[in-house]
Amino acid sequence: MNAPSKPGSKADREALRQDMANAGCALADVAVEMRTRFKMRPREAWRHAHGWTLQETADRITQASVRRLGESVAADASLLGKWEKWPGPSSRRPSLPVLFSMAEALSCRVEDLLDLEDRRALPEADLHLLARHPSAAEPSSTPTTSPPINPVPKPVGFNLVRLAADESATWAQWAEASNVGDIALEQLMAETRSLASDYLTSDPVALFVRTRALRDRVFALLEGHQYPRQSTDLYVAAGYLCGLLTWMSSDLGQLRDADTQGRTAWLCAELARHNNLRAWVLSTRSKVAFWDGRLREAINFARHGASYHTTGTVAVLLACQEADAWSELGAHDEASAALAHAEDARVAMSGEDEIGGIFACQPARQENYAAAVQLRIGRSADALGAADNALALLAVQPVRAYGTEAQIHISQAAAHLATGETEGALEALAPVLALPPDHRLEPVTRRLSDLRAGIGRPYVSGTTAVGLRQAIEEFCVDSAPRHLALSPGEGSA
Prior knowledge:
The protein is mainly alpha-helical. The protein has 2 domains: 10-139 and 149-176, no CATH class; 182-484, Serine Threonine Protein Phosphatase 5, Tetratricopeptide repeat (Alpha Horseshoe). Helix content is 68%, strand content 0%. Helix 1 (10-22) packs antiparallel against helix 2 (27-38), helix 2 packs across helix 3 (42-50) and helix 12 runs antiparallel to helix 13 (255-272). The protein is elongated.
């Protein structure tokens, strides 16, 4: 069963127009009813009385203005929407030539398009000109010809000077207005930090919904008007939020969607000219490329990010990601060199991370990368040492990221399997296999699947190995990406 439409919906407007047309009402009567019933501004009510869209009406205004000597108007749907809302927020005052062209297009008088609120906001010079030269166009329910043209005489003398001053003052009022304040910007960044931190420990799908909602709020603010520095801050917030959605999308196995979010995050970083954001966005894009098998691209993203002058730990993470991709390619020397670069970046690090949470590379996270890299280049003992160090470091962190901790345990298990220690591998994997399904992210299930393939090797056998393979298989089937794929979606009953 369909939900009832909201009052003032297109269906309501069309029904009203039809009822009043059947009753023989004039167009002006329809406009008045639209205003009173649906709380519309006068200009919007007249447009809906005709049943026209914003763009259709804008085209007619442009055409009408061409017939008025020296008063051409270039109208579009967005601009008309602002004229209709005036003098409300995010609006623009229509000039007298616009009002006369609008009246001609809508087959009404200029006076019909203005209410008391409009008249109070109009410059005094405009009110004088309207009083001396009212519109001669009369409304009609079925207009067939254009109403007579009544050009507005050009202002001269003191009226011209006053009109120019009023126009400048009106523009200055618009330029000075902002739809966001410094306190609101501070709150947006605080909420972004909270989301980045919560993602380390919370349900990823619920965090995705919250992050998307906050991103939409920031996007809506950017569509309004604010000071340039405030726009820059909003682009920074939008970039970090899209970066979070990039990371989350890839963790949920949606790599193509993650790429799209990453491109938007990069656009925001470029518009803000913010080096830390640029580097973190390139880090998220390197992650997506790595899990998508585009290893050379992952390396290029990581190196590009490292080329920016940054503060905090992003340079450490970028070097770790480069090492990760080189080790997957089997390039031992390059992987080792990148791990060394990560150590150097840690020593040279200055300042704090702006966001933190997932956008931070604590020592435990760095050791986690080192363990995985050492495994791939055949250094099992070094991998086991790095994994042990990572767990020790993680134990003293105020926030323990379950995804990082799971991958550390997987590296531990893989190092044990490399030396035939199946029991040690099973013990290392116990905390991973106990993760609830909502926390079983794509990187964890992918690494477990790789580990399961290694259990089939000749030196890994026995009852324990068989049980381990079965446990991993069951774990991967009941995972967060799997639940997401099977979810009914928002549109289901």
